[in-house]
């Protein structure tokens, strides 16, 4: 098979079809996955990209060649695949490249119970075996088809009851991604009884060429249509899902984006009301408001590195009820510690539906500080620039430095910044927070001046 280093990333597989990821590669990876997962059956799902069905079928051939059965769930979101892995207690594979452009595809894999597979937890072994080649083993396994969408929707509804909420007008931008498939089942009345929600759909047509805008709501440029429709219709809330619908972004009734940290704090408050004293995970780039609010609500906040494998591992170690990241990934203990944007959206809808105030007033309680958002700087010497920044700040009175994930510097006035190197690109990623916008901008500009020097 040759070197697969181009497509194997820290947490998953991503490549350009067919240049670096084709059916033969998927077949080899399927055989390797079957060996590493070491289970009698695996479940496979795929997104709406034109290449996904062929790649998923080839992967299934690799799996069945090892005498392992495949449950083909067909079209689904990544969190539906996690549901399938947990519900069926099987390892799983999801074919998606999330928010990447149309020419990309990829594979997200997990062990039974949606336990993560990353570079240090099986992915490196899968790569090695796929590169070496895995011979077929004995009698071939079988492929069966199973529609899990209704079971997925019913399970999510069992976790968050929206039936008693006031009627809400909700604009949903699916970005031609898998939200167009899952939202009607979970929030609409397609598969289960109708909820008190009036859904205004935007770009629900499944189209992996993304004809309207990239399915990446982390880039606010892709929220413009959602914001306009919320304002035009006078909706109570807007929701935007990424391509594989595992992340959800929220805009309020004014069309203004709600920071993911505010959503993390809001959902944490809901979960702590249900289970007082529980632990909540937050990565080190979420707002300081998150651990503050968790403590105020009687919970225990635990700070972790960025990335789902770290979040999920820490949740398992601590028994945490919930975890949130700045990138709008939300993790739930009752969802096999996996991330699901749909469940986070349902928590927000429940809060809004139980309150007469507009969403902007509700979320103001959870937004305490000014944040820069993530700023990417292209640099040739990531380590050298980061060292220069550390040298400039480390000697300041009251400054605290840590290296949990990149460089974090906390200052006595409550300001802080984090500078992290990208694993895949020559980039430094900067996030800054301060008590007010002016202080944030001063600190941001000072750090950027050093990074870009």
Question: How would you describe this structure to a colleague?
Answer:
With 453 residues, the protein is of the alpha/beta class. It folds into 4 domains: 13-147, 3-Layer(aba) Sandwich (Alpha-D-Glucose-1,6-Bisphosphate, Chain A, domain 3), CATH 3.40.120.10; 151-254, Alpha-D-Glucose-1,6-Bisphosphate, subunit A, domain 3 (Alpha-D-Glucose-1,6-Bisphosphate, Chain A, domain 3), CATH 3.40.120; 260-364, 3-Layer(aba) Sandwich (Alpha-D-Glucose-1,6-Bisphosphate, Chain A, domain 3); 370-451, 2-Layer Sandwich (TATA-Binding Protein), CATH 3.30.310.50. Helix content is 36%, strand content 23%. The chain contains 14 helices and 23 strands. The strands form 4 sheets. Strands 1, 2, 3, 4, 5, 6 and 7 form a 7-stranded mixed beta sheet that branches. Strands 18, 19, 20, 21, 22 and 23 form a 6-stranded antiparallel beta sheet that branches. A 5-stranded mixed beta sheet has the order 9-8-10-11-12, sandwiched between helices. It is globular, with a radius of gyration of 22 Å. Its EC number is 5.4.2.8. InterPro entries: A-D-PHexomutase_a/b/a-I, A-D-PHexomutase_a/b/a-I/II/III, A-D-PHexomutase_a/b/a-II, A-D-PHexomutase_a/b/a-III, A-D-PHexomutase_C, A-D-PHexomutase_C_sf, Alpha-D-phosphohexomutase_SF. Its cofactor is Mg(2+). Keywords: Isomerase, Magnesium, Metal-binding, Phosphoprotein.
């Amino acid at each position: 098979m040759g070197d697969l280093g181009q497509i194997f990333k820290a947490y998953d597989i991503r490549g350009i079809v067919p240049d670096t990821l084709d059916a033969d590669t998927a077949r080899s990876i399927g055989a390797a996955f079957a060996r590493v997962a070491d289970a009698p059956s695996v479940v496979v799902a795929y997104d709406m990209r034109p290449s996904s069905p062929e790649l998923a079928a080839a992967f299934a051939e690799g799996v069945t060649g090892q005498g392992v059965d495949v449950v083909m769930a067909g079209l689904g979101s990544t969190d539906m695949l996690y549901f399938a892995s947990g519900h069926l207690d099987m390892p799983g594979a999801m074919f998606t490249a999330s928010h990447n452009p149309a020419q990309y595809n990829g594979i997200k894999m997990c062990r039974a119970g949606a336990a993560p597979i990353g570079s240090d937890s099986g992915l490196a072994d899968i790569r090695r075996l796929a590169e070496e080649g895995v011979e077929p083993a004995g009698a071939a396994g079988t492929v069966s088809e199973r529609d899990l969408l209704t079971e997925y929707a019913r399970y999510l509804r069992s976790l968050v009851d929206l039936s008693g909420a006031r009627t809400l007008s909700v604009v949903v931008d699916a970005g031609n991604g898998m939200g167009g498939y899952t939202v009607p089942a979970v929030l609409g009345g397609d598969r289960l009884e109708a909820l008190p929600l009036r859904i205004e759909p935007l770009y629900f047509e499944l189209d992996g060429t993304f004809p309207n805008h990239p399915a990446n709501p982390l880039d606010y440029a892709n929220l413009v249509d959602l914001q306009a429709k919320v304002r035009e219709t006078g909706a109570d809330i807007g929701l935007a899902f990424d391509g594989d619908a595992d992340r959800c972004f929220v805009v309020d009734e004014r069309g203004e984006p709600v920071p993911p940290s505010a959503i993390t704090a809001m959902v944490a408050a809901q979960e702590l009301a249900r289970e007082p004293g529980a632990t909540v995970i937050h990565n080190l780039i979420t707002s300081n408001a998150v651990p503050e609010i968790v403590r105020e609500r009687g919970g225990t906040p635990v700070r972790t590195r960025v990335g789902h494998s770290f979040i999920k591992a820490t949740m398992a170690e601590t028994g945490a009820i919930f975890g949130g990241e700045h990138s709008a990934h939300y993790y739930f203990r009752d969802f096999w510690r996996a991330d699901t944007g749909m469940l986070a959206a349902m928590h927000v809808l429940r809060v809004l539906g139980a309150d007469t105030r507009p969403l902007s007033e509700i979320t103001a309680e959870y937004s305490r500080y000014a944040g820069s958002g993530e700023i990417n700087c292209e640099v040739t010497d990531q380590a050298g620039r980061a060292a220069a920044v550390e040298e400039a700040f480390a000697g300041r009175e009251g400054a605290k430095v840590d290296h949990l994930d990149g460089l974090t510097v906390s200052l006595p006035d409550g300001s802080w910044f984090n500078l992290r190197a990208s694993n895949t690109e020559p980039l430094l990623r900067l996030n800054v927070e301060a008590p007010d916008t002016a202080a944030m901008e001063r600190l941001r500009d000072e750090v950027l001046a050093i990074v870009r020097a």
